[in-house]
UniProtKB/TrEMBL annotation:
UniProt keyword annotations, A-Z: NAD, Oxidoreductase
Higher taxonomy: Bacteria, Bacillati, Bacillota, Bacilli, Bacillales
The keyword Metal-binding is annotated on this UniProt entry: no
Domain D-isomer specific 2-hydroxyacid dehydrogenase NAD-binding: 119-275
InterPro entries: D-isomer_DH_NAD-bd, NAD(P)-bd_dom_sf
Organism of this sequence: Saccharococcus thermophilus
The protein's name in its UniProt record: Phosphoglycerate dehydrogenase-like enzyme
Pfam families listed in its UniProt record: 2-Hacid_dh_C
Superkingdom, natural source: Bacteria
GO molecular function, one term: NAD binding
Length: 310
């Protein structure tokens, strides 16, 4: 496929400009803010590069869309896709970043950091026995690249992570993988649930009242997409102790409104969608690799299956 004109927008556009112009001076780039994108840009460009479609987005003459993030729900959720347009996503260190995010909060809990912080504030010398991570039963929803990386890191601590996916096919680093319909077999015994799912029609509000009712005093981490969780059901699960701790890097409405009760729940930790951030270097490297493959008609390692949504 011939790609000559490339429209780059989103929060990294200015930082990407210098690198891309140096490395591919043969291409015509437009680097603009999301607010500055106009209708003419879509008919000028062969390719659109950004974290999401701008509000005025239309396909125009675009033949390739490249997401600067790992997820592509911003491009596909509740949108019609033009079938002859290629959609790719950025692949980088997201799995490693998210694994370390999860491990940091798991160890914080199991090593009783908050308990000791409180004792220190009270000037009390009270030993509390920590819990070994390898004793924990961890269930990971999502067995793709990111889920596999989380499982791989947990294996290093002696954990035998269980995976849940739509298909139930066995994947590397998991002790066993179950399908979503088989999840009831493992959920009641879980100590930790890690949600690392994309947002699709199949995963929207997958974590609902029925799901939470199967849990017993579980820690729930969501590093996938906020809309996979029914937040009303999550709140009830927190109140009923089906969940003892919820760590949410993603929520259904972002930024989380100041009026949301989740902000002040004592058993909720909120971070602003930072478990995995796209660096300029990774964004540029992945984009250029993909561009080269498209130009040479080579297989794409990061092409999105539009039907599946990932």
């Amino acid at each position: 496929m011939k790609i000559g004109n490339i429209l780059v927008t989103g929060r990294l556009y200015a930082e990407m400009a210098k690198l891309l112009q140096q490395k591919r001076p043969d291409k015509n780039f437009r680097f603009v803010t999301e607010e500055a994108v106009c209708r003419d840009d879509f008919f000028w460009a062969d390719a659109y590069v950004g974290f999401r479609p701008v509000p005025s987005f239309e396909f125009g003459n675009i033949r390739w869309v490249h997401s600067l993030g790992a997820g592509v729900d911003a491009f596909l959720w509740n949108r019609e896709w033009k079938e002859d347009v290629v959609l790719t996503r950025t692949i980088g260190s997201f799995g490693e970043q998210i694994s370390e995010y999860c491990l940091s909060y798991m160890l914080r809990d199991l090593q009783c950091h908050d308990v000791y912080g409180w004792y220190q504030s009270q000037r009390q010398w009270k030993p509390v026995a920590p819990t070994l991570l390898r004793t924990q039963r961890v269930v990971i929803y999502g067995t793709g690249e990111i889920g596999q990386q989380i499982a791989r890191h947990l294996r290093l601590f002696g954990v035998a992570p269980i995976g849940i996916s739509l298909s139930g096919r066995q994947k590397p680093h998991f002790s066993k993988v179950f399908s979503v319909t088989q999840a009831e077999e493992v959920l009641p015994k879980a100590d930790w649930i890690i949600a690392a799912l994309p947002l699709t029609k199949q995963t929207y509000h997958l974590f609902d009242e029925r799901f939470f009712s199967l849990l017993n005093n579980v820690c729930f981490i969501n590093v996938g997409r906020g809309a996979t969780v029914d937040e009303v059901a999550l709140w009830s699960a927190l109140e009923n102790r089906h969940i003892r701790l919820a760590i949410l890097d993603v929520v259904e409405e972002e930024p989380l409104p100041p009026t949301s009760p989740l902000w002040q729940h004592p058993n909720v930790i909120i971070t602003p969608h930072i478990a995995a951030l796209t660096s300029v270097e990774e964004a540029v490297d992945c984009f250029l690799q993909t561009l080269r493959r498209i130009e040479n008609n080579e297989p794409l390692f990061n092409r999105v299956d539009i039907e599946k949504g990932y």
